[in-house]
Write a structure and sequence with these properties.
Helix content: under 10%
Protein name: Tyrosine-protein phosphatase non-receptor type substrate 1-like
CATH superfamily of the largest domain: Immunoglobulins
CATH architecture of the largest domain: Sandwich
Low-confidence stretches: 169-175, 278-294
Largest sheet: 4 strands, antiparallel
Distance between the termini: 51 Å
Number of helices: 0
InterPro entries: Ig-like_CS_Receptor (IPR051755), Ig-like_dom (IPR007110), Ig-like_dom_sf (IPR036179), Ig-like_fold (IPR013783), Ig_C1-set (IPR003597)
Order of helices and strands: EEEEEEEEEEEEEEEEEEEE
Pfam families: C1-set
Keywords: Disulfide bond, Glycoprotein
Number of strands: 20
Organism: Callorhinus ursinus (Northern fur seal)
Shape: elongated
Structural class: mainly beta
Number of domains: 3
Strand order of the largest sheet: 5-6-10-9
Amino acid sequence: MKGRHKHPASAQHLVINDKGDYSITSKVWVTLARQDILLGITCKVTHRVPKEPRRKTMNLSQGLQVVPTLKITTKTSGTHIHVHQRVNLTCHASHFYPSHLRLTWMENRHKVQTVESPQVTRNPDGTYSLEHTWLAEAALEGREFACWVVQDEQPPVQANITLWAQEPRLGKGRSTHSSSLQGPLQRSEPGTSIQLTYMSSGFPSCQVTVTWLKKNLELLKWQTQVHANGDTYNVTSRVLVPLRADDALSFVQCHVDHKSIPVFQKTITLNRYLRGDTSECFKMDKEEKDPRCS
């Protein structure tokens, strides 16, 4: 019985020894879910001697592992992030089991802090949650931060966020503009394409050029739009990037020029969007790192 629900036994096997005593083995297949952490499974055996059935209960939590849900949130003191401003990044790991895990903060794919068995909070359903904060510094070129969580020897689960600082524009008649570069939230199979999007606002003129490169070769399937927003201009540029099986080490670059002057440049590695086993990138204990992690 699982909770109050009966499960049919299968593969029962009866054996008799030299003394004439019998022993029996039986198996049951049970589908586990997150809500089973507080439940047990009971095996009941009835026989004419003794009259009362024999029972043995095992907690289902002994064989259950629940992978956490991760997200990173930010808390800033104002509406804009300025250069060298310190920003609190909080990694939220929700509804995981068991409670033991290892949390690591990464900055631009380099390890900056590892916490063994961070303090957790028990949820009413028996799972655990935690929040861990890292103080990050914003930069004009953007910095990518990631929170990695590892349970036992399972592949890591991660959440990513890119922190952009607002670029100062000094001088009469000139304004400030902020930029962001976004990609898909889910990984994709080789043979498909992903869309990357660059968005920026506050350009003082419409003379903006966006160039997309993959492995230093210009991509063809892109579209850039520049439209007025009051006295300034907003820019949106999208590109379709084909994924190949050997793109784990490939990268895409986004170059933005205003009046032929570079104002933005960002390089993104494609392994973060390519579906496959990236757990080997998390071999932080060894002296030689996987080149995809550097």
